[in-house]
Specification:
By secondary structure, the chain is α/β, with parallel strands linked by helices. Helix content is about 40%, strand content about 20%.
């Protein structure tokens, strides 16, 4: 795959934001006694230089978390980044070099790599999917199907890959789904109640399963319709119905194999839980360098 430009123009996540995640991961790994393997096998004052290296091509995400993992273990470790989040790298590329106390380098290794491999896997999969539908107007978005506690990081990784974020939580927007409709009684009632609460700053989206429900939602007036588990032919009809009335978002089990067919229908957005719950980690390792 060709070299890609950075896809994220916003600043990286602030250290104040990411620190609790890194601290929690280190505490989990260190347990009650610390890194007993490094304590047993490596002299106390030995210094070493290691290289964080990509073993697969992909989009990198999580460099600041990796850097913080080393800094929290030992603030005298020198972390020299060679790339930044959102960069595409080829297999074999050095992402960063780290130099310092050998014991402490190895203590921080797994925590740093866990963040890098997981988030880079999400960013890479997002970039590949975004590229696959680049000729169509649809924009790829993630969902709330995230690992509990890691949502902000996973959604940041989606942005690094060129995707967009759906709502971050239940408080971002009103999304009326099938169970809301069932309990409220009908789509029109649910939308009317939502409008009464929302005010002018909270957008309203409603999930529909068929074209009759879609027409009812459009008549009631919404900002966005979530077209759930519709076939490409039905999606095409739905998009035509929504022209000038609401934006459209396709959802429901969409994968890399089906996303192009969905994009061809002309939907504005494609929501993919796949990005955060089914992607594979990017292979990244920490290798000893003889050049100390």
């Amino acid at each position: 795959m060709r070299q890609k430009p950075k896809s994220v123009t916003e600043p990286a996540l602030a250290n104040l934001v990411i620190k609790p995640w890194v601290e929690a991961a280190l505490v989990e790994d260190l347990g009650r006694r610390g890194d007993v393997t490094s304590q047993a096998t490596i002299p106390t004052k030995m210094q070493a230089k290691l290289e964080i290296r990509a073993r697969q091509a992909g989009v990198i995400c999580g460099m600041d978390l990796a850097k913080m993992a080393f800094a929290l273990v030992d603030d005298e470790i020198d972390f020299c980044a060679k790339i930044t989040d959102g960069d595409w790298v080829e297999a074999g590329s050095v992402l960063a070099t780290v130099f310092g106390n050998a014991r402490n380098l190895l203590t921080a290794e797994r925590t740093a790599l866990n963040f890098l491999t997981h988030l880079s896997g999400i960013a890479t999969a997002t970039r590949q999917i975004v590229d696959s539908v680049a000729e169509f107007p649809a924009q790829i978005t993630c969902t709330r199907k995230t690992i509990p506690g890691l949502r902000v990081l996973q959604k940041y990784a989606v942005r690094c890959g060129g995707g967009r974020n759906h709502r971050l939580g239940l408080d971002d927007a009103i999304l009326i789904k099938d169970n809301h409709i069932a309990i409220s009684g009908d789509i029109t009632t649910a939308i009317a109640q939502a409008k009464a609460l929302a005010g002018h700053l909270i957008p309203i989206e409603v999930e529909v399963d068929n074209l009759d429900q879609l027409e009812e939602a459009l008549e009631a007036g919404v900002n966005l319709v979530l077209l759930d588990n519709m076939s490409p032919s039905t999606l095409t009809k739905a998009v035509a119905m929504c022209q000038g009335r609401a934006q459209t978002e396709a959802s429901g089990g969409i994968t890399p194999d089906s996303v192009v067919a969905v994009a061809k229908t002309g939907v504005d957005f494609i929501a993919m839980g796949y990005l955060t719950h089914s992607t594979t980690a990017l292979d990244i390792g920490l290798d000893f360098s003889s050049e100390a």
